[in-house]
Structures are given as structure tokens and as C-alpha cells.
Amino acid sequence: MGFSERWINWIWQCLSTVSYSFKINGDQKGFVTPKRGIRQGDPLSPYLFLICSEGLSNLLRRAEASKLISGISISRRGPSVSHLFFADDTLVFCKASPDQAEELMNVLVTYERGSGQMVNYDKSSVFFSKNTPEGEKVCCLQKVRKCPNGKPR
């Protein structure tokens, strides 16, 4: 994403030099050094999410610009929207077709490999327009969930 080595080192120092202590009955006790990850509620956490989200956003924009996926428009001449981010939630919009479902999965796999983040399919949902034929839904779900019968993994 074009970050300088110096900037990356600053962020790494913020993440790798952290230790926590506990107050028990008003007295500070010991130190704990986390072994991996960033603690929930860390002030840096939302900013790191936004930086990672920018990478996913770029991948989705490229897929849409290449006509691999198509977002939704509110009106005929309105802008196309392929994704929205809010806090730590992501909404992705594309046409209900097996080809676009497969391309969406390609984008997500590319993002997972590049960022180290993984899509949590247990917390993910797929929604279809009421006008989407059942056969298309099944075909799309098979692509999205990568299973032969369309049921979640």
C-alpha cells in the first residue's frame, strides 16, 4: 500500500513493545507481555482496521473497474456501490451470479493472503434480492461457501 519502512517500523514498535500490568486492591502487580495479536480496546486497533480495510477496498474497486463484479446503484445514473465499511463490519454488493460470487471469493482470498486476516464465515451472511431465482441462489452459495451442496462449511 506504499507505506515507508520508517512508518511500518513505528507501527511495529507500538505493537511489539507493549506490556500490561494489573491493579489488585489498588496496588500495581507485575507485567504481562502479550505473545500475539492486539488487545481488544487498544486505541491503535480501529486505525489498523481502517488501514487493512483500505487494502480490501482497493481490491474490490479494481474488481469492479475490471467488470469482474458489479455493485449496486440506487438510480440508473447513480454511482455504483460495491462495498461499505462501518466500524468493524463490511458489506459487499454484487450481482447474484456464480461468476461474480467466484470473483468475490477470489478478492477475499487475495485479501486474506495479503493481510493475514481471515473471513469468519460463522459471522458472515449472504442475502439475495427477492427477485433472485432459487437456482441462482444455490449456485452462488456453492461458490461463496465452497461446498458442493450450498450449505455453509
Write structural notes for this entry.
- The protein is of the alpha+beta class.
- 41% of the residues lie in helices and 12% in strands.
- The chain has a domain at 40-145.
- It contains 4 helices and 4 strands, in the order H-E-E-H-E-E-H-H.
- Strand 1 and strand 2 (27-32) form a beta hairpin.
Short description:
The chain is an alpha+beta fold and 153 residues long. It has helices at 5-16, 45-65, 98-115, 134-145, and strands at 20-24, 27-32, 83-86, 89-92. It has a domain at 40-145.
Task: Indicate the percent of residues in helices.
Answer: 40-55%
Secondary-structure element series: HEEHEEHH
Average per-residue pLDDT, rounded, comes to 84
Estimate what percentage of residues fall within beta strands.
5-15%
Query: What structural class do the secondary elements suggest?
Result: alpha+beta
Which regions are unreliable across 5 or more consecutive residues at pLDDT < 50?
147-153
Largest beta sheet: strand ordering: 1-2
Shape: elongated
Largest sheet: 2 strands, antiparallel
Note the quaternary state here. single chain
